[in-house]
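Is this the right way to post C-alpha cells for a design question? Let me know if I should format differently. Anyway, here goes:
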C-alpha cells in the first residue's frame, strides 16, 4: 500500500524550492515550505488522538495554511471537511455534529460562538486566522517538519463535502483518494497543465471547483498559484498579466467584461480561461472572445462526481455547451420516469459513471440509493441533451436548485424558515435572473387570513439563521401560490411572473 493521492499531489514536491503559492503581497511559499507546514499540522492532528479515517472540519478564511490542512489530512489519513465561511453557527452545528468531526478549526473571531458547537459534537476546537495565527498554528510551531505518510487505499476517504438536497438535511458526499486523483489526472492532461503554469486562484477552497479542480491540477502538474483570498476585480486585473490560466464561475467573467481595463493586452499571456459551477451564457462566451481573442473553456461537474464533461482544449469550444464526457467517464441521458437510456438528441436526465463518482452520502444509505444506481451510474438531476456532434448541453434541472454566483441554494431550506414565521401561511422561493449572480432567490409569501407578516422582522430572522448568500434578494406578498390540478406549486409560473424583477 501507499498513499496515491499524497504521493501524486504533494510527496513528489518534497524538498522542492520551487514556488507553489504567490501571495497577494507578492511573497511566495515554496512547495517545500508548504509541505513542512502540512507535516506540522499532521502532527497536531495525530497528537490530538485522531485515528485514521477521522474527520477534520474547518471553517476558516482561505490562506496557504488552510490549504496545508488539506495536505495534512491527506498525508495522515484523515478526512478533510472544509465549510463555507458564510455559514452561520446554526448551519455549522449540523455539519460538525453529523460528520462526527474530532477536530474543528475555526477563525479566532468566531471561537466564542462556536465553542458550544464543538463541545456539543465532542470535537476539539482550534483556531486559525487568515494570517496563520491561532491555537492550531501555536501547537504546530514546535512540531517536526516531516511526517511519515500514512498508507491509504484507492477507495479510502479523503474528503467530505456537504451538499444540500430538495428534501431533508444536507448530505456529506464521501470522496475517495481515487475519486480525486483520477479526475485531476484526466483534467491536467486534457487542459495541458505543466509546471510552467501559474493559475490565478480567486475561488474559495471549500468547494470542488477551487479545492479539487484548481488546486489538485496545479499540484499534479507542479505549477504555481497566485492565491487570492477572494475574487476582487481590481486585484484580479492587477495580477492577470502574471498568470497563464484562471478558473472561475461565470460571475468572474461577467465582472471582468464589465470593466474597461479588461483588455486583449491584459490577457495576452493567458493560455486558458475555464468556467464552471453554473451555466455560462452564450452571450458571455461570445463577448469574451470579441474582447480578448480567447474562447472560455466551459466544463461541467458536481460535488458528488467531480468533473464530468469538458469542452476540448484543442478543437471547437462550443458556446452554450459543456463539451464531451471526460476520459473514463460514461455519460448517458435517461428518461426521468423510466430511467431508460434515450437516444442522442432527446432531452433527459444526465447520468454518469466512472472513477470520478463518489462513494455515497455519509451515513445515509437510503439517500445514496436514490441517486446512485447499483450499476454505478449517478443520477445528476441535471437535464441535458447530446447534440449530433457529441457535445453535451445542459438545458435545465430536474431538481429545485438555484445557483447564485456559483453557490448552490436549495429553496426548500429557505421555505422552511419562511413558513415558520408569524403570519405566514406558506411560501415559495424561486430563482430569478440576475446580471451579476446568474440567478438570485426571491421569496413569495402567502399571509394567513387577516395577517400581515412583518417583512423586516422576517429578513432579520433570515440573517441570523442562514448564510448571507442564501437570503432572498426580495420578499413579495401574494394572495395565493399558483398550483396545478394536483395541488403542486407551479414555480415556473412564479419564475415567469418575476423574471424581470432585476432588469
Ligand atoms: C457573496 N455574496 C453572495 C455570493 N457571494 N450572494 C449571492 N451569491 C453569491 N455567490 C454576498 C456577500 O456576502 C455580500 O453580502 C453580497 O452578497 C455582495 O457580495 P459581493 O462583494 O458582490 O460578492 P463577492 O464577495 O464578490 O462574491 C461573489 C463571488 C463569490 C465572487 C461570485 O460568491 C464566489 O467566489 N463564488 C464562487 C463559488 C464557487 O466556488 N462555487 C463552486 C461550487 P453583503 O450584502 O452582506 O455585503 S460548485 C462546484 O464546486 C461544482 C462541483 C462545479 O462544477 O464547480
Ligand atoms: P454542486 O452541487 O455545488 O456541486 O453543484 C453542481 C451543479 O452545478 C450541477 O448539478 C449543475 O446543476 C451545476 N453546474 C456545474 N457546472 C455547470 C455548467 N458548466 N453549466 C451548467 N450547470 C453547471
Amino acid at each position: 500500500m501507499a498513499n496515491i493521492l499524497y504521493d501524486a499531489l504533494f510527496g513528489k514536491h518534497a524538498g522542492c524550492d520551487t514556488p507553489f503559492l504567490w501571495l497577494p503581497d507578492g511573497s511566495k511559499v515554496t512547495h517545500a515550505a508548504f509541505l513542512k507546514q502540512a507535516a506540522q499540522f499532521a502532527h497536531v492532528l495525530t497528537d490530538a488522538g485522531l485515528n485514521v479515517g477521522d474527520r477534520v472540519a474547518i471553517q476558516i478564511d482561505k490562506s496557504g495554511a488552510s490549504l496545508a490542512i488539506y495536505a495534512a489530512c491527506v498525508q495522515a489519513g484523515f478526512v478533510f471537511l472544509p465549510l463555507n465561511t458564510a455559514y452561520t453557527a446554526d448551519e455549522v452545528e449540523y455539519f460538525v455534529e453529523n460528520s462526527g468531526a474530532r477536530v474543528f478549526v475555526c477563525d479566532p473571531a468566531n471561537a466564542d460562538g462556536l465553542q458550544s458547537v464543538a463541545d456539543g459534537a465532542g470535537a476539539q476546537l482550534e483556531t486559525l486566522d487568515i494570517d496563520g495565527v491561532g491555537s492550531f498554528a501555536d501547537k504546530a510551531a514546535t512540531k517536526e517538519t516531516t511526517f511519515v505518510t500514512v498508507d491509504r487505499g484507492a477507495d479510502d476517504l479523503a474528503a467530505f463535502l456537504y451538499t444540500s438536497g430538495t428534501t431533508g438535511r444536507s448530505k456529506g458526499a464521501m470522496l475517495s483518494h481515487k475519486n480525486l486523483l483520477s479526475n485531476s489526472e484526466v483534467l491536467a492532461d486534457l487542459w495541458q497543465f505543466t509546471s510552467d503554469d501559474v493559475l490565478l486562484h480567486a475561488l474559495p477552497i471549500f468547494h470542488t471547483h477551487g479545492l479539487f479542480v484548481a488546486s489538485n491540477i496545479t499540484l499534479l502538474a507542479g505549477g504555481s498559484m497566485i492565491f487570492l483570498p477572494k475574487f476582487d476585480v481590481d486585484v484580479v486585473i492587477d495580477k492577470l498579466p502574471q498568470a497563464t490560466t484562471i478558473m472561475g464561475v461565470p460571475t468572474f467573467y461577467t465582472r471582468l467584461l464589465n470593466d474597461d481595463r479588461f483588455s486583449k493586452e491584459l490577457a495576452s499571456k493567458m493560455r486558458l480561461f475555464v468556467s464552471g459551477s453554473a451555466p455560462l451564457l452564450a452571450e458571455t462566451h461570445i463577448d469574451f472572445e470579441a474582447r480578448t481573442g480567447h474562447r472560455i473553456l466551459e466544463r461541467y461537474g458536481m460535488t458528488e462526481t467531480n468533473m464530468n464533461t469538458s469542452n476540448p482544449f484543442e478543437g471547437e469550444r462550443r458556446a452554450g455547451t459543456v463539451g464531451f464526457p471526460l476520459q473514463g467517464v460514461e455519460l448517458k441521458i435517461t428518461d426521468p420516469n423510466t430511467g431508460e437510456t434515450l437516444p442522442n438528441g432527446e432531452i433527459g436526465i444526465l447520468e454518469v459513471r466512472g472513477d470520478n463518482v463518489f462513494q455515497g452520502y455519509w451515513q445515509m444509505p437510503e439517500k445514496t440509493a436514490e441517486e446512485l444506481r447499483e450499476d454505478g451510474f449517478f443520477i445528476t438531476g441535471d437535464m441535458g441533451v447530446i447534440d449530433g456532434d457529441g457535445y453535451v448541453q445542459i438545458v435545465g434541472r430536474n431538481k429545485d436548485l438555484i445557483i447564485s454566483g456559483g453557490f448552490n441554494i436549495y429553496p426548500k431550506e429557505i421555505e422552511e424558515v419562511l413558513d415558520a414565521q408569524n403570519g405566514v401561511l406558506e411560501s415559495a422561493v424561486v430563482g430569478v435572473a440576475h446580471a451579476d449572480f446568474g440567478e438570485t432567490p426571491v421569496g413569495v409569501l402567502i399571509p394567513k387570513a387577516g395577517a400581515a407578516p412583518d417583512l423586516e422582522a422576517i429578513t432579520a430572522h433570515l440573517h441570523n439563521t442562514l448564510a448571507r448568500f442564501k437570503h432572498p434578494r426580495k420578499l413579495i406578498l401574494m394572495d395565493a401560490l399558483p398550483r396545478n390540478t394536483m395541488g403542486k406549486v407551479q414555480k415556473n409560473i412564479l419564475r415567469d411572473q418575476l423574471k424581470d424583477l432585476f432588469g
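Format looks fine. Someone answered above. Worth noting: Residues 31-47 form the longest helix (17 residues). Residues 203-204, 207-210, 230-231, 249, 251, 276-277, 301-303, 404-407, 437, 468-469 surround methylmalonyl-coenzyme A (ligand 1) (CB under 6 Å).
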